[in-house]
Amino acid sequence: RMEGFGCYALPTGTEYRGWLWDGMFHGKGELGLPKGGGFRALWDRGVPAQGKYTFADGLEYEKEKWHYCDGYDRRFYTEICSGFKPPGIPQLTNLDPPQIIPKGCYDCGDGFYNPKTRVVVDYKRKFLRNADDAEHEWILGTCRKAWDITEDKPK
Predict the structure, then answer these.
(1) Which has the minimum average pLDDT: 52-56, 93-97, 128-132?
(2) Mind telling me which PANTHER family this protein's record contains (predicted)?
(3) How do strand 144-145 and strand 127-130 relate by DSSP bridges?
(4) What does DSSP assign to residue 137?
(5) From 20, 21, 62, 132, which residue has the greatest number of CB atoms within 10 Å?
């Protein structure tokens, strides 16, 4: 069994770097996620005893003092860190400037959605998933559309 300090790559692209004992995460270690961010923890026989999750943009999750998007403060994380833009210049996403949405598609947060094919691809155009009926309706009702920006709504 694996023991000592090491690196373990999971089939999902997640990677563990840290201490192992009897084939389990044990001691200080971090799970790095493929798109950034991760979970740094003190592990006890494969179970995190204490730890902290960090999102890809650097935002750290704090269970007890979580103030981001809590219903009272709806600012994006970049607005919290850097302040607001001047009046009249909207910030539509946490990423500024936002991704350019392909014609006829929607920005659904983790990629682009094409309602004709019902496929979600990531921002590098790699397949993520097929949208079910509930996700399809949610995206159409709430997400930014390419024609919101270009003014020309596709037919």
Answers:
(1) 93-97
(2) MORN REPEAT-CONTAINING PROTEIN 5
(3) unpaired
(4) H
(5) 20
User: CA-to-CA distance for 151 and 147, rounded, in angstroms?
Assistant: 5
Q: Which two tokens stand for residue 53?
A: 């999750």
Domain annotation covers residue 68 = no
Q: How many domains does the chain have?
A: 2
Query: Amino acid letter at 16?
Result: Y
Say how far apart CA 76 and CA 94 lie, in whole Å: 5
pTM over 0.85: no
Per the structure, the complete domain to which residue 134 belongs is given by 99-149
38 found inside a domain:
yes
| Token pair recorded at residue 23 | 């084939």
Give the DSSP H or E segment for 135. Answer: helix 133-142
Check residue 143 and report its DSSP letter.
Answer: S
Sign of CA dihedral 104, 120, 97, 82: positive
Average pLDDT, the chain: 83
